[in-house]
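Try this one yourself first.
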């Protein structure tokens, strides 16, 4: 993180413990084509652009998209990354494929309180609905042998998330965890199983 000059704009989720845990956990090499889903201020996009081959950074928030573009330019990495405003993969071409997809999804259960950062924090009524939609949306964009990295929390339904990843043909392992004062954060890595065949209903 210290290698980048980062500025966080108002109304953009500031990098926090969950962001740093994902940042430290994702291993990127020079051949990787990376999808940073929910880019926020762009810390993971910066790492991916510096180390990887090419990056697409996505966020539903226009402010986050602008912030990521600003930080890429500030660090002379704009040429390695395309930044898109999109609800999940709705603005990504169906044919686009990535070797690595990473996301720190909103996972807080909904409440009566409302803030301007709800899009980055609230994952649904029980907190995992967005994560389940995310897994289904991005899985078709993973190449054979590709990996998906997800931040999950102990206050959500961990088992349902891992079951969804397995159903989508991913072998799942927990590669990092960090205890907070009221929850435990984890990073899951799902790798495409070589013998996976999509079920057509």
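Now uncover the answer:
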């Amino acid at each position: 993180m210290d290698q980048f000059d980062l500025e966080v704009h108002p109304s953009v989720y500031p990098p926090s413990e969950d962001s740093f845990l994902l940042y430290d956990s994702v291993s990127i090499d020079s051949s990787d084509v990376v999808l940073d889903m929910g880019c926020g201020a762009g810390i993971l996009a910066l790492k991916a652009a510096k180390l990887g081959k090419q990056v697409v950074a996505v966020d539903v928030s226009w402010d986050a998209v602008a912030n990521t573009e600003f930080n890429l330019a500030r660090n002379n990495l704009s040429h390695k990354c395309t930044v898109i405003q999109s609800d999940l993969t709705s603005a990504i071409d169906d044919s686009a494929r990535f070797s690595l997809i990473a996301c720190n999804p909103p996972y807080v259960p909904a409440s009566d309180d409302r803030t301007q950062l709800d899009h980055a924090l609230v994952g649904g009524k029980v907190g995992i609905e967005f994560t389940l939609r995310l897994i289904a949306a991005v899985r078709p964009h993973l190449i054979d042998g590709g990996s998906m990295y997800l931040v999950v929390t102990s206050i959500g339904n961990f088992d349902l998330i891992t079951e969804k990843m397995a159903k989508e043909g991913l072998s799942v392992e927990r590669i990092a965890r960090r205890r907070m004062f009221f929850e435990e954060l984890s990073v899951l890595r799902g790798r495409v199983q070589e013998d996976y065949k999509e079920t057509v209903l």
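Discussion: The radius of gyration is 16 Å. Residues 17-192 form a domain with the Rossmann fold fold (CATH 3.40.50.150).
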